[in-house]
Amino acid sequence: MKNIHVRKTNNETLQMTNGHSFGVRNVSFIATSLLLTVCLAFTSQSVSAKKRLPRLLVFSKTAGFRHDCIPVAKLAMIKLGQENGFAVDTTEDAAAFSTRNLKRYAAVLFLNTTGDVLNDEQQTAMQNYIHNGGGYMGIHAATDTEYGWPWYNKLAGAWFTSHPKQQDATLIVVDRNNPSTSHLQEKWQRWDEWYNFKDLNPDVHVLIKIDESSYEGGKNGDNHPMAWYHDFEGGRSFYTELGHTKESYADQAYLQHVLGGLRYAMNIKAKK
């Protein structure tokens, strides 16, 4: 074996072995470079994975009555996304309804919106979004929205007309073969604010009805739907009347119902 000569010059150590030399600074530089490369790779993978997550736009602008549950409801939607593999953006800025921006989202959730919330250009962008395969979901007051826009009535499935006082009522789950209702019993006893509707879209698939004999103030008779969905003009639409109270957004049965609706609207399947 050849002798190893060690020489120190300007804090740099060189080792001569079989004619090869290695600098401590060079080794340190290489190690640092490798570490940075690994870190950047993991960061890139993390960012890439985040970009690949389906995204939900939660829209809660109000131009009429404003529900005090909106802040906790938005937090609940964010948590649902974190726990179930989709990203959530929340906004009350109607400028989000541009053709370019809506392309980022698998679905748009109208969360207790009220009144006239979109201008003509934004309405057109929303229609094109649905026609290109986008998803819509409405919660509660989403049917108390855009009365001057007939297309929205068909998309959402109905318009709100009135409601009695908040009270307990019996919901009848007419279709339990759906991710939004499969966890529920045939009868669901629940406290909420119960809407009466007009201009119900006959083409929707009803999941839940309300038993008008179980509470006061119902005006739709035996056919009083509370949750429904339908494929619509190239896209998907899901609506649930439930969700007036703050307490709803801590109710696991309700949140599972909402999650099933979101998955349909976003066109994503539950993990088995």
TrEMBL record:
Q: Which domain of life is it from?
A: Bacteria
Provide the ThuA-like domain boundaries: 55-265
The record's section on SUPFAM superfamilies has: Class I glutamine amidotransferase-like
Q: Name one Pfam family in it.
A: ThuA
Q: What is this protein called?
A: ThuA domain-containing protein
Tell me what organism the protein belongs to. Chitinophaga agri
